[in-house]
Amino acid sequence: MTQPTLIDGKAIAATVRDEIGRRASELLASTGKRPGLAVVLVGEDPASEVYVRSKDRTANELGFHSVKHTLPASTGESHLLELIGTLNDDPDIHGILVQLPLPSHIDESKVLRLIKPEKDVDGFHPVNVGLLTSGEKDHALIPCTPHGSLILLKRTLGSDLSGLNAVVVGRSNIVGKPMASLLLQESCTVTVAHSRTKDLPDVIRAADIVVAAVGRPEMIRGDWIKRGATVIDVGINRLPAPEKGEGKTRLVGDVAFRECQSHVGAITPVPGGVGPMTIVMLMANTLTAARRQLGFPEDKPIF
Ligand SMILES: NC(=O)C1=CN([C@@H]2O[C@H](COP(=O)(O)OP(=O)(O)OC[C@H]3O[C@@H](n4cnc5c(N)ncnc54)[C@H](OP(=O)(O)O)[C@@H]3O)[C@@H](O)[C@H]2O)C=CC1
Ligand SMILES: Nc1nc(=O)c2c([nH]1)NC[C@@H]1CN(c3ccc(C(=O)N[C@@H](CCC(=O)O)C(=O)O)cc3)C=[N+]21
Ligand SMILES: [Mg+2]
Questions:
Q1: ipTM rounded to 2 decimals
Q2: Which ligand has its closest atom nearest to the C-alpha of 271?
């Protein structure tokens, strides 16, 4: 029995981050400008605060200009829209990220549509979604988590994924749908599964590549996965871990990791898999956005 390849997202993210750092220094040398990122957090979701802190820290490490706007959960929609307008007009801000989910009294899609597409470093604006799905992804900003997941797949399997059967479990706008678009563009045969999918285990058994983005702890079992398949576990689920002490928690993915050990080809751990890639791809998008706004409009995304 051979051990599967552990896809080390943390290590791969570090190499991507180094490359971003080099390119950001070049940009600074030639224009005197640093990429600028604004992160907007509405309300006090502890999980969101972890990610926002991590984004802020990575941006600072890379020498980016980084600002964080933390607004109370009671913030009115018009106030948030006003802030987006200000950030849209700020020449030092090249990327805007509004942390999701937003409180229910705010219309998420209205907020995302107001962000200038060229500053939309999450890739959620309809213009970026359209560019990605119509095969013009070199002109788009691509959602960070699926893009990071694709890089992990290519580092593991090589750059040619054509003809592979890929099953994406989950169809959200943040992960599942853009992941499916990216894999289709790599000429995979793509199946998107969701809560109404019949016979999910059998659908997954046909997959050479499984991308799990469900949000249900360890829902995908080891015996659903074909021998030798590559598994990208996007899920981040925080479970109580009383064995670590009172009030402690641990993170698990959407895939039963241990059950996969005996037969999968390669698998991402949680934590240390997709999560760190999401953060660096946000920095990559911010750099791409800055380069375009500072007069390198023909530039392709750097990753
Ligand atoms: N590592 C990272 O950087 C990131 C991690 N995440 C994590 O990824 C996971 C998914 O996030 P997100 O896409 O936002 O989640 P959503 O809740 O928006 O979407 C979940 C999807 O899973 C589907 N689903 C739910 N239950 C089942 C089921 N029993 N069988 C099959 N499909 C099911 C839903 O189907 P339906 O559409 O029919 O309801 C839906 O399409 C979460 O754990 C989240 O924390 C998210 C973003 C970034
Ligand atoms: N507008 C918007 N864009 C997002 O990209 C976005 C969002 N809203 N809302 C929430 C989700 C979730 N998300 C994660 C980012 C990093 C880790 C990450 O770094 N995870 C570490 C562990 C971190 C920990 O210990 O909690 C890891 O997996 O190793 C996880 C999840 C981005 N999201
Ligand atoms: Mg969601």
A1: 0.98
A2: 2
- Per residue in 29-75, pLDDT tens? 999 999 999 999 999 887 788 888 999 999 999 999 999 999 999 99
Per-residue pLDDT tens digits for 190-215: 999 999 999 999 999 999 999 999 99
Residues 6+ away with beta carbon under 8 Å from 297: none
Q: What are the angstrom distances between the C-alpha of 97 and each of 57, 75, 111, 154, 296?
A: 15, 17, 11, 26, 22
Mutation pick for ligand 2 pocket among 55, 115, 236, 238 (CB with most ligand atoms within 8 Å)? 236
Q: Which two tokens stand for residue 21?
A: 């750092």
Longest dimension (CA), the chain: 59
Which residues is 252 bridged to in the sheet? 237
Closest CA to 35 of 12, 15, 55, 50: 55
Return the best residue to mutate from 42, 238, 278 for the ligand 2 pocket (most ligand atoms within 8 A of CB). 278
What domains are there in the chain, each with its CATH number? Answer: 31-117 (3.40.50.10860), 144-275 (3.40.50.720)
Q: Taking the complete model, does pTM exceed 0.80, yes or no?
A: yes
Just list the catalytic residues.
Answer: 55, 99, 122
